[in-house]
Specification:
The complex is a heterodimer of chains A (336) and B (494). With 336 residues, chain A is mostly helical. Chain A has a domain of 233 residues. Chain A contains 15 helices and four strands. In chain A, strands 1-4 form a two-stranded antiparallel sheet. Chain A has a two-stranded antiparallel ribbon with strand order 2-3. In chain A, a hairpin with a 2-residue loop joins β2 and β3. Chain B has two domains: 230 residues, 3-Layer(aba) Sandwich (Rossmann fold), CATH 3.40.50; 241 residues, P-loop containing nucleotide triphosphate hydrolases (Rossmann fold), CATH 3.40.50. In chain B, the strands form five sheets. Chain B has a six-stranded mixed sheet, with helices on both faces. The chains are: A mainly alpha (336), B alpha/beta (494). At the A-B interface, α10 and α11 of A face α10 and α11 of B.
């Protein structure tokens, strides 16, 4: 009797464990371990310089800009697409928002105008990406590659290859401030993450995104407006690039066409390391956040130890491969 | 070659399979999905290792440690998913992995000559060795795959459901090639669950169920179908098709199609389906039958004519308009067109209707799951776990997910394209009963199947399609299988 009741129970336990490891928690587990390992290494090599509240905030602040872009990227990749244009859209938005007439208009009305302009530029670029991809049937890789090149070019033309200083005082005092001892930039990151998580996991928008990435044809035949939704997803990605531009202006106090160069690669790396499937159909916001944090912490540990960025890049490459291999391990275990 | 014997017992999926294959025979292995057929093949081709038991090859015990060893001793396998490389030529595919070369440079002339010889031996000299495989039909790709087996000088060829991707003409050709092979003393293990095929090509049958041999060496010609089904399913099957329920004369017309056309594919298609009626479309692959249904549904944009649901015309080319009016499609390719395989079952069920429970765009997963679970219980999904990934379910249960999707949505017109493809014999009867029960509740149903027997058995009325036209219409009870076949053949010849 006892063996009969115990054995199925044990089987249940194992399957629960396996399911947890195969689920998003399990996929994130490896990332949490990696992040903790980096913290241990940082504390050992750099001691108190690393393990202080100020430094932790520095790490998060450093992560926040890429982090915001990565949230938009998570949606695009979950839907089975890719957005290579985010970095240069960031640059373009930073330039447009700091054009002298925009700043003058902002000074005479409200500094929020600059924020709205930057986000609108991002959204517009996303809209163009979305229309070209969804309705023009151009492969996302190519369409957004074209936007990458064109947006950077437009930014150069508009800025005349100069750096445009932010002179609007209201913008600077508001965006460079703190709330309860935490920088505004970090708050923006937190809000975007929370919104991203909610939208992806709890709304019809998120469900459609996952469905389209998982099987576009099945979604279409079930009556989901696939094209329109794909367009929305690219707009979302553009909007996050616009928000990131605002953050960039706050951090550097200047707009320039070179802002955000190669950010698309960091964002894609963070998303994929985080466990979002590059072929679409599965996305995790928490994984993306962990991915961003790992790279940001890595940079911090290296900087604290005065190591060159070249060595840092090598380590980044190794981490990308190792993290993905680790996830596949967990994924396979859950299948068995 | 004197005779080869294999016996196993004990791998997890295989709990004791005994099988003996002699040269020159076609030995059919019959079993439902999940019976252990695939594991058996993988063990023979060196992908899996048996935990217990042994494999005897020409009387000697052998360990087939990897696929290369299997090929070296003379066992070649043709997998269900064709393992040819589309971008390479026929000759390159045939000699893939054992190219004729001199110091790493391929000997193109010798490769081409020997490939041509092999294709001729297979009765397909018209497929040139230089032809790119991607341009060939599924049937011809299979011939190339067989050519590869011959190039290894295989003595035993394992064919895993080779007919799954073929239409009836191509299957005939496949059988001709198989007969050629066996005449030359090559043994074939033929895996299938289509009984009619096994009747035609097989010599002996081994039935496996739950990883065990239920019966072996049954002579094909003397074993009644009923016995085979009972061995496969472990239960008695009396009537596969449920009895027809007469459609009331005053039953309303739910779907009517008027002069529908899709340029270059079909034209002048008119038909009506009443509430409670099952209309079957019979026709060959390529006759336009799937395209007709997809166009009615709005997945393709018609070039002429219109589709009306309860008298209201739908927007051409808009799936949403069809779904909104109460139409649902279970597509031909269940996995690639119907399901999101890695998503849980309940989300697949609610794919067309999850927005209904949402408030202001925020999902109500609890209500969704509850609704899905209730529907799945009614359909007796197995396993009855709504959180499982759809991928892990058998073909029959995946089909139930699609039916559940439209039932949850409240669909009154169901378009079912190949509802039993890849569904094993036992589960088929269940699907048939479900479809009939839906009709009895007043759903209008259109069914497509390559198996004419199925169309006739299931439907009330049959439309025969050939070359993009409806060439015949009659009550399903008033026409025989061979008549439909004659019509189809004549129609496509004309």
């Amino acid at each position: 009797m006892s063996t009969q009741t115990v054995s199925p129970h044990a089987g249940d336990k194992r399957s629960v464990l396996n399911r947890a490891l195969g689920g998003s928690a399990g996929r994130s587990l490896g990332l949490v371990i990696a992040l903790l390992a980096l913290f241990v290494v940082g504390t050992i090599t750099a001691g108190d310089r690393f393990a202080s509240v100020d430094n932790i905030l520095t790490i998060i602040r450093f992560a926040s800009i890429i982090g915001v872009i990565s949230i938009g990227m998570t949606f695009v990749i979950t839907a089975g697409g890719i957005d290579l244009s985010v970095g240069s859209v960031l640059g373009l938005a930073s330039v447009v928002a700091t054009l002298s007439w925009v700043q003058q208009f902002a000074t005479s009305t409200n500094w929020i105008v600059m924020v709205i302009v930057a986000i609108a530029v991002g959204g517009l670029a996303g809209l163009i990406n979305g229309i070209v991809i969804a309705y023009g049937n151009v492969v996302a890789f190519i369409a957004t590659l074209a936007m990458l090149v064109a947006a950077r070019g437009l930014a150069e033309v508009l800025a005349n290859r100069t750096t445009q200083i932010v002179i609007e005082p209201g913008f600077l005092s508001a965006m460079r401030g703190e709330l309860i001892g935490v920088p505004i930039l970090v708050w923006i990151f937190v809000v975007v993450v929370a919104a991203g998580w909610f939208i992806l996991n709890r709304t019809t928008f998120g469900r459609r995104t996952v469905a389209i990435g998982g099987n576009l044809e099945a979604a279409r035949l079930a009556g989901i407006k696939v094209k329109r939704h794909l367009m929305y997803v690219y707009i979302l990605s553009g909007l996050t690039a616009g928000i990131a531009a605002v953050m960039m202006l706050a951090r550097t106090t200047a707009g320039t066409s070179t802002h955000g160069t190669l950010y698309e690669l960091d964002a894609i790396a963070a998303v994929v390391v985080g466990g979002t499937l590059l072929i679409g159909g599965r996305g995790t916001i928490m994984g993306t956040v962990l991915g961003v944090m790992i790279f940001s912490t890595l940079t911090n540990v290296f900087t604290q130890n005065n190591l060159s960025t070249s060595v840092q890049n090598i380590a980044k490459g190794v981490i990308i491969v190792a993290a993905v291999m680790l996830q596949q391990r967990f994924a396979n275990r859950s299948k068995k | 070659m004197r005779g080869l014997t294999k016996s196993f017992s004990g791998t997890r999926a295989l709990a004791g399979v005994d099988l003996t294959v002699v040269p020159g025979e076609v030995h059919c292995v019959l079993g439902q999905n999940g019976a252990g057929k695939s594991t058996l093949i993988k063990t023979l081709s060196g992908i899996n290792q048996p935990d217990e038991g042994e494999i005897l090859w020409q009387g000697e015990p052998v360990a087939i440690s990897d696929p290369v060893t299997a090929i070296r001793i003379g066992i070649a396998t043709m997998y269900q998913e064709l393992d040819v490389v589309d971008g390479l030529s026929v000759a390159e595919n045939i000699f893939l992995g054992h190219e004729h070369d001199r110091a790493g440079v391929t000997d193109r002339r010798r490769t081409a000559r020997e490939a041509a010889e092999i294709m001729a031996r297979l009765g397909h000299p018209q497929i040139g060795p230089g032809r790119e495989v991607g341009t060939l039909s599924a049937a011809n790709k299979q011939i190339v795959s067989m050519g590869r087996a011959l190039s290894h000088d295989a003595k035993l060829i394992i064919m895993d459901e080779p007919s799954a991707v073929l239409d009836s003409e191509e299957v005939k050709n496949l059988f001709r090639v198989v007969r050629e092979l066996t005449k030359a003393g090559i043994a074939v293990i033929y895996i299938s669950h289509r009984l009619e095929e096994i009747r035609e090509i097989g010599d002996r049958i081994t039935v496996i169920k739950d990883g065990r041999t239920m019966a072996t060496n049954l002579p094909v010609s003397e074993t009644p179908t009923k016995q085979l089904i009972e061995l496969m399913t472990g239960r008695t099957v009396d009537n596969v098709f449920p009895p027809r329920v007469p459609v009331a004369d005053d039953a309303p017309v739910l779907l009517s199609v008027e002069g529908l056309a899709l340029s270059g594919v079909f034209e002048g298609v008119d038909f009506q389906v009443r509430a409670g009626e099952i209309v079957g479309l019979a026709g060959l692959v390529g006759s336009g039958r799937s395209e007709i249904v997809e166009t009615v549904y709005g997945a393709r944009k018609s070039s002429a004519g219109r589709v009306l649901v309860e008298g209201k015309a739908l927007t051409p080319g808009s799936v949403r308009s069809g779904v909104h009016a109460g139409m649902g499609l279970s597509p031909e390719e269940r996995k690639s067109q119907g399901l999101i395989l890695d998503e849980p079952v309940y989300r697949n069920v609610t794919l067309a209707s999850f927005a209904r429970w949402a408030k202001g765009g925020v999902l109500n997963e609890r209500a969704e799951r509850q609704e899905a679970r209730a529907q799945l219980e009614a359909l007796e999904l197995r396993p009855a776990d709504p959180d499982r990934a759809a991928r892990t379910l058998s073909g029959g249960n995946q089909q139930k997910i699609l039916l559940a999707r439209w039932l949850v949505h409240g669909t009154r017109i169901l378009l079912l394209d190949e509802p039993t493809r890849g569904v094993d014999v036992g589960a088929r009867a269940e699907i048939y009963a479900l479809i009939r029960a839906l009709a009895a509740q007043g759903t209008a149903i259109v069914v497509i199947s390559s198996e004419i027997e199925e169309v006739l058995g299931l439907s009330d009325r049959v439309l025969v399609i050939a070359d993009g036209r409806i060439i015949h219409e009659s009550a399903a009870s008033a026409i025989e299988e061979h008549d439909v076949l004659d019509l189809v053949m004549k129609g496509s010849a004309a």
